[in-house]
């Protein structure tokens, strides 16, 4: 339960810069902030901090990990504060929730593909697609998540839904497996299998 004091505390620290982000992260946060304001949302300091932590995490990060990270001796935000910030970021398509891991990742194609050109229309389009559908490759070993965008996959899904008279409102596809690095590590016989393949084909 959030008390008035919690609310005040969250509010009073709102304008304080408590976490120093790298210039690269700060740039991404500025882009996110600009996108939010175009959508009529306000990126408060707290939302900015949560997004910054998700960007810097490099791995999907859970709500309680975030809560721990923003805790300071004089600031102990209540879980609802973090959940509200996460809801805001999800709503604006800045992050995605990985259901399987109950964790959050930044929307890579929104924040990471920093194009030199400022193609607002292009962003809006991508953003819209991403808000409703997201596809992820999740590495079981290192827990890395790669966001993929494949329009043909979505077209197939839409076709299937149409056939079933099913009204699709969103789709999150989570593919579990091993990333290239972990797959190579998992098979020290990588070279051997190459040889095998070569000999079997000869
Ligand atoms: Zn995305
Ligand atoms: Zn991996």
List keywords for this structure.
single chain; 202 residues; alpha+beta; Arc Repressor Mutant, subunit A; 3-stranded mixed β-sheet; two-stranded antiparallel ribbon; disordered N terminus; binds zinc ion
Order of helices and strands: HHHHHEEHHEEHEHH
H/I helix tally: 10
Q: Ligands bound here?
A: zinc ion
Using only C-alpha atoms, the radius of gyration works out to: 20 Å
Strand order of the largest sheet: 4-3-5
Instruction: Say what oligomer this is.
Output: single chain
Q: How much beta, percentage-wise?
A: 5-15%
What is the correct CATH architecture of the domain at 4-132?
Orthogonal Bundle
What top-tier CATH class of the domain at 4-132 fits best?
Mainly Alpha
**Structural class category:** alpha+beta
CATH superfamily of the domain at 4-132: Winged helix-like DNA-binding domain superfamily/Winged helix DNA-binding domain
Ends apart, CA distance between termini: 69 Å
Main pleated-sheet profile:
3 strands, mixed
Strands, total number: 5
Q: Would you give the CATH topology of the domain at 4-132?
A: Arc Repressor Mutant, subunit A
